[in-house]
Amino acid sequence: MPINNIKDLLFESIEEIGLLYRKKEVSPVEVTEATLERLHALEPKLNAFITVLADQAMGQAKAAEAVFVNGGEAGRLTGIPVSLKDIFMTKGIRTTVGSRILKDYVPDEDAFVYKALQEAGAVIIGKNNMLEFAYGSVHPDYGQCNNPWDVNRTAGGSSTGSASSVGAGIGFASIGTDTGGSIRVPASFCGIVGLKPTYGTVPSQGLFPLSQSLDHIGPLTRTVRDNAAVLETISSKAFDFNSAFSGGIKGLKVGVIQALMDTVTNPEVLSLIAKAIERLRDLGADIQEADIPGIEKIESAALVIVLAEASAVHKEWYDTREADYNPATYANLKAGFGISAVTYLETLEKQKQFKGMVDEALKEVDILVCPTMAYPATEKDPSFENGDIDVSRRTIPFNFSGHPALSVPAGNTISENLPVGLQIIGRYHNEATVYKVADAFQQATGGYKLPPI
């Protein structure tokens, strides 16, 4: 293939790139070179990376190329350029967690997901920008990560660079984390697919924690099938890629969480989500209303756990490093130290009860749906310490419950051409059905849409 057409491949699917590798029509080295060229062309406009691993990536690409040339055993991710949020330990490579405190930290261990990507033959191009300690605010040392649909707007957080880079065609996937919506929110803002799997599906070894009870690890990709290919690689539980995409969704019961629709005030978001639900009906799904009592208020309970557990993680720096934190991050830590043990334990009991309520709702339907966010990408990162901004009301309930939840693009607003996400929630360890519905919807709506950048 002529080198001037290589860039067109950067928005192809993982499956298509793998097929071209096997046919020897393009090589991992060519695709990696093109990916790095695009990275350098768009940085710092996007500001999606903290550390670029160009030399390492080229070495991994050459090793992958040798596999295909010699007829070796290649998996779905062999030779595929990917990135990961700078919250995962990488031996010999700095891991900043988006903070000044760890700006020079070089771990002596590899996170599980980093090792899994390497063992799968993926080409790891860099570590992505993120909100400080994944805690709601960007540190000024690193700066806001911008949106490929409008670089004057945020990519969303806290997996900011993961969503921005994938949306812009800089790599085919990234690994992010999600404690209150940090995969799904930027996926919605950037018009890509983001999955928070069932709690514990992806091992957290080597992850710098925010809130151990609510932290989830998952993939961000442009297509649903790419997402499943990555989950298959990083999951500690058996996941059958092919089973997720066999058959249609005719007869599947879809429960609309009306309480999470009613609080959306943006008319374009409401219209796009309503049209998305009707498209599922057109595909044969049985649409009905789902009731989960009090779900619209669960955000405040979940934040009790986030605040308390995050403060415990940061106790060694809290008294001595205040000046090194973003003031908003430090304010969150201060609030966490103010939560009593009684309040924390009462909230854990509420969590058990809420898990049961979501389970009950999912006995009546196969999946649940609602908007991912109440609005498209904002100019600055929305932050939950500003109580009048609806940040994680629709996402954090499923961190609280641990159920798998995915954001898939539902279309763009007419007024500003900004993406809106539809959130799909499934039963524990049933990512396959979530993927099946999301894929059917994405295929029916024309697949991934390229941003203007």
From TrEMBL:
InterPro entries: Amidase, Amidase_dom, AS_sf. PANTHER family: AMIDASE AMID-RELATED, TRANSAMIDASE. It comes from the Bacteria. This is Amidase. Residues 30-434 form the Amidase domain.
